[in-house]
């Protein structure tokens, strides 16, 4: 039971990461590598502030706000210096590695004795209490993000990823909305890193390694399994993250060596991408055959 609760807990933390990456990859169509530096940035910043006695809730807010900066830098490099977005993300991620080490002067920082956002007793069961806290945070973020995407700024952000010409014809500048989108995306990723740090009770500069694959796997799994249901993309990202963690936990419980987990992560992503591509190809063939019979 504890394994299941821990899996759901981590799935909820990764769901915030997935919603952040959803903004950059799915809405803006930008392959943002910055997140692999922003995730540990949130974790290292959290450790530094918590050990100084800062309120955990305030720490989460600070991480979200400061998480905007890497996204702004990455997209700013792409806009001002005409660097390819994927390269600007890699450059920002690389620079963040040094910054993350500077924050605590150590690559690994345990949170021994520090007060965390999960240090609250609601049911008497620590595992259940952490899940309740995370559920509240995740649902609030989902509601706020869904409402934001329905505003004028949200529509402009979506249009900047789909049709830049339309945005320009409305007298708006797509680059402005890309900056906002990448900032918001990395803010959510930093918040996810902060919560992950508080859950694991340690911050590590290597926490971001492979985190992008986890986010993409969560999004693709959610879309693959739940795309036929009339639910929002943010909900699919949340459910995808939880399902992804359950698959990983089942693999480990079945006897998989934890060292092979990243290999499994990649294979899971490949399997679901292949499934989507095969299904789309099949649907196109059915449509073509149907159109042929209609014409004849």
Q: Cα distance, first to last residue? A: 59 Å
Specify the number of helices: 11
What is the rounded Rg? 20 Å
Number of E-type strands: 2
- Quickly give the structural class: mainly alpha
**SSE sequence, one letter per element:** HHHHEHHHHEHHH
| Uncertain parts | 286-296
User: How much of the polypeptide forms β-strand, as a percent range?
Assistant: under 5%
Please tell me what the overall shape is. Answer: globular
Spatial ordering of strands, largest sheet: 1-2
In summary, what is this structure?
With about 300 residues, the chain is mainly α. The protein contains eleven helices and two strands; from the N terminus they run ααααβααααβααα.
Helix and strand topology:
Blueprint: H1 2-27, H2 35-50, H3 56-80, H4 85-104, E1 108-110, H5 126-149, H6 152-162, H7 164-169, H8 174-200, E2 202-204, H9 211-226, H10 233-253, H11 261-295
Antiparallel strand pairs: 1-2
Helix pairs in contact: 1-5, 1-8, 1-9, 1-10, 2-3, 2-4, 2-8, 3-4, 3-8, 6-8, 9-10, 9-11, 10-11
Structural notes for this entry:
It is a single chain. With 296 residues, this protein is mainly α. The protein is built from eleven helices and two strands; from the N terminus they run H-H-H-H-E-H-H-H-H-E-H-H-H. A two-stranded antiparallel ribbon has the order 1-2. Helix 1 crosses helix 10. The protein is globular. The protein starts with a helix and ends with a helix. The model is unreliable at 286-296 (pLDDT under 50).
């Amino acid at each position: 039971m504890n394994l299941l609760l821990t899996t759901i807990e981590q799935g909820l933390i990764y769901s915030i990461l997935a919603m952040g990456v959803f903004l950059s990859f799915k809405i803006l169509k930008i392959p943002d590598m910055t997140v692999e530096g922003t995730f540990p940035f949130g974790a290292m910043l959290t450790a530094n502030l918590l050990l100084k006695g800062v309120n955990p809730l305030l720490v989460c807010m600070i991480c979200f706000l400061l998480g905007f900066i890497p996204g702004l830098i990455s997209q700013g490099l792409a806009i001002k210096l005409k660097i390819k977005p994927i390269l600007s993300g890699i450059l920002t991620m690389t620079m963040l590695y040094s910054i993350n080490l500077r924050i605590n002067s150590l690559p690994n920082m345990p949170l021994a004795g520090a007060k965390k956002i999960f240090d609250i007793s609601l049911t008497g069961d620590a595992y259940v209490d952490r899940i309740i806290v995370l559920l509240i945070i995740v649902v609030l973020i989902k509601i706020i993000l869904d409402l934001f995407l329905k505003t004028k700024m949200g529509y402009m952000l979506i249009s900047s990823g789909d049709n830049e010409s339309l945005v320009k014809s409305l007298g708006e500048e797509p680059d402005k909305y890309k900056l906002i989108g990448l900032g918001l995306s990395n803010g959510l990723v930093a918040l996810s890193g902060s919560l992950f740090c508080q859950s694991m009770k340690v911050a590590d500069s290597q926490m971001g390694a492979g985190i992008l694959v986890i986010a993409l796997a969560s999004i693709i799994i959610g879309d693959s399994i739940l795309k036929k249901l009339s639910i929002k993309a943010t909900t699919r990202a949340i459910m995808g993250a939880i399902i992804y963690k359950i698959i990983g936990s089942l693999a480990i419980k079945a006897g998989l060596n934890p060292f092979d987990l990243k290999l499994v992560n990649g294979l899971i992503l490949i399997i679901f991408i292949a499934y989507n591509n095969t299904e789309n190809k099949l649907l196109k063939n059915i449509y073509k055959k149907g159109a042929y019979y209609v014409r004849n």
